[in-house]
Amino acid sequence: MGSLEKKQVLVIGGSSGIGLATARLAAARGAIVTIASRSKTRLREALGTLPASAKTVSLDGRDEAAVESFFRSGSVWDHLVISGAETPMGSVRELPLRDARAAMDSKFWGAYYVARAASLAPNGSITLISGFLSVRPRTKTGLQSAINAALEALGRGLALELAPIRVNTISPGLIATPLWAGMSNEEREAMYTRAANRLPIQRVGEPEDVASLILEIATNGFATGSTVYLDGGGIIAS
C-alpha cells in the first residue's frame, strides 16, 4: 500500500462502523483524518478514539446546499471515503415510498453530491461503499440491491469523468456494525450465526476487514473504476 503519512483523509459517515474503522486505521498510518456525520453526539464519541490531530464535521450528505457549502471552504483532500447511509429494508409493495426515496437520498444522492462538490488532489481518490446485494439480492432487499448497483455504476462513471482522480467501490457482505443495533442481542447473534454458517469463511465481517481494503484501494495508484467484493464468499455461497 502507498503511504498515508500527512495525507488529508475525509471519511463521510466516519463516526461509527466501517467509516470509523477506516478513520482509525488511516490515522494509525499517519494520515490527518477528518470524520463527517449527521450526529454530533456520535462525532464527539468517535473523536475520543482518534488522535489529537483528527477533526470532525457535522454534515448531512443528503443536504445538497450544506454539502456544497462545506466543500467551498477550499480544502483539498487526498482521499475521500463515502461510507454512511440509512437504507431501510422492506418489500417493494410494503415499504413506504417516502422511506424508499429517503434511502436513495441517503446512499446514492448523498454520494453523488459529495463527489460532485469535493476538491481532490490530482493523484487523490474517492472510495464508495456499496454492498454485495447489488449482485446477490434477497427477499425484501430489492431497494438496497438497486441502490448498491447504481452506486457501483456511478463509481465507474466517475472514474472516467474525474480522471486522473481514482474512483473505486468496495462492496461488503454482512458486517458486524452498529447498523444492526436496533435488533435484540438474540436476533442479531442469530443473524450472524446463520450468515457465518452459509459462508465459506465461516464468520461475518468486521469493520476492520473493510477498512484495510478501503485504504489498500485508495492508495493503489493503478486502481480505478473497480468494484471489489469483500463478502466472505457470499456471492458464491449457496
Q: What sort of overall outline do the alpha carbons produce when their principal axes are compared?
A: globular
| SS field, number of helical segments | 7
Largest sheet: 7 strands, parallel
* CATH superfamily label: NAD(P)-binding Rossmann-like Domain
Following the backbone from N to C, one meets helices and strands in this order, namely EHEHEHEHEHEHHE
Q: At CATH's second level, what is the architecture?
A: 3-Layer(aba) Sandwich
- CATH topology name, in short, is Rossmann fold
Q: Which structural class matches the secondary elements?
A: alpha/beta
Distance separating the two termini: 33 Å
Number of domains: 1
Task: Kindly state the number of beta strands.
Answer: 7
C-alpha Rg, in Å?
A: 17 Å
